[in-house]
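Forwarding these from the shared drive since the link keeps breaking.
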Amino acid sequence: MVVKSDAMIQYEKSAGELMKNRPKHSNHDIMHLEVRNLVVIAAGLFFVLVVAATMMGY
C-alpha cells in the first residue's frame, strides 16, 4: 500500500478539477487558421511587390 502525502493528494484534486473544468474546444484550430491566413497575406504582398518592381523596369 502506498501512503500519499498531503501535497500529492492536493495535487491530484487540483489536476482533477482542472481537467473537469477545461473548455471542450481548445482554440488551437483558431490559431492554426490565423497562421495560415498570415502566410497567404504575406505571399500576396510579395507577389504584388514583385509585379510592381517588374513594371517599373527593375
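-- next protein --
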Amino acid sequence: MAYQIDNAIVKKDRTGKLTLIDPEGHFQDEDALIAIKSDDLITIQLLINSILNNDFKSWRELGVIPDSEPIKSLLPRLGYSRDDIAKLLKEF
C-alpha cells in the first residue's frame, strides 16, 4: 500500500515571482500553500510508506536523532538498502 502526497511545483523566476504549476488541479481552491524541496518530499513519502510497511521496532531503536541530521538519513538508519529504497520508489 503506497501513500501519495498531493503535490505541485512552485517555480520562481528571475524577478522572484512565484508561479504554481498544478496540472492536476489539486490546489486550485487553496488560499495558502507551502513549498518543500522535491528531494525532501520524496523522502517524506518514502518515510510514510516505510512507516506503513514497517514493524515499529526499527523506529524505536533509532533513539534520539540530532536536529542537525538531514531527514534523508532516516531510511539508511532504519536499515533500508538502496534496493529497498528503489522498491519503495516504485510503489508510487
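The chain has four helices and two strands. The chain has a mean pLDDT of 80.

- D.
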